[in-house]
Write a structure and sequence with these properties.
Elements (H helix, E strand, L loop, with lengths): L4 H5 L10 H10 L6 H14 L2 E2 L9 H7 L1 E2 L1 H14 L4 E9 L18 E11 L2 E5 L6 H10 L7 E3 L2 E3 L21 E8 L2 H8 L5 H25 L2
Parallel strand pairs: 1-2
Antiparallel strand pairs: 3-4, 3-8, 4-5, 6-7
């Protein structure tokens, strides 16, 4: 691990933790003063619940832009999580996947679902703590949104897929920080695209989910409708 530490701690155009806004957040939260395990737990909780689940204009946004947006999905919230953890000296790396689009049903309104690709680029963050790599995915869905979905499907614990969630047990998903792996969409994974030191390298190789007119339409129209739907669920339930 020692020889690789620098790569897993470096800033990149996406992981821009030297940006003033991220430095201010680090100071406000006092994360740099905490033991690494406590800092990781606190940063995880912040990204999960203070950065709402929602759809940004692109997967390749910088961490500072995700923080400015105040919302994100697996890939963009992961960028922010990686940047904040690296900023306090915790090594991170990127693990890329695709997921089946079925798990987005409900979060994406039915009338927009035909625009979704069959397989969607997905990722989780791998975090090096206490001598081992942890698979961290449970930060994607914020608690207020999750609780509304749980309320609608109360007691469901036989496999659940929908509303941006894919978990064996909706009532007890593995998304709380315990110092071990966390998951919230793992059951929807289709393809494993491998581990990368930097998210920038992954997106240079694999691109993003949509291209051409669909990408333009997503960025300027569709995602806003999707975010309105997600926010309605968060505020009013299903």
């Amino acid at each position: 691990m020692t020889s690789l530490t620098q790569a897993y701690l470096q800033a990149t155009p996406m992981l821009d933790f030297h940006h003033e806004s991220l430095q201010q957040l680090l100071d406000q939260q006092r994360w740099r003063l905490l033991p690494q395990a406590d800092a990781a737990a606190s940063i995880y909780g912040y990204v999960r619940d203070q950065i709402a689940f929602g759809y940004n204009k692109d997967d390749t946004l910088s961490a500072s832009q995700v923080l400015k947006d105040g919302y994100g999905q697996c890939n963009t919230k992961g960028t922010l999580l990686m940047a904040l953890l690296r900023a306090v000296g915790i090594p991170t790396r990127f693990h890329g996947f695709t997921i089946f689009n079925d798990l987005q049903k409900g979060a994406i309104p039915g009338y927009l679902f035909p625009f979704a690709p069959e397989r969607i680029i997905h990722s989780w963050v791998e975090v090096y703590l206490d001598g081992k790599w942890l698979e961290i995915e449970g930060f994607i869905i914020d608690r207020p949104y999750l609780e509304q979905v749980q309320a609608r499907f109360a007691g469901q614990c036989e496999g659940f897929s929908g509303y941006g969630i894919a978990t064996p047990c909706l009532s007890k998903p593995d998304n709380d920080w315990t110092g071990d792996n966390t998951y919230i969409q793992r059951e929807g994974i289709a393809d494993d695209l491998g581990i990368y030191e930097q998210p920038d390298d992954f997106y240079r190789q694999h691109g993003s989910n949509l291209k051409g007119p669909r990408r333009f339409l997503f960025r300027h129209v569709l995602r806003h409708l999707m975010n309105l739907n997600v926010d309605r669920i968060r505020r009013r339930g299903l």
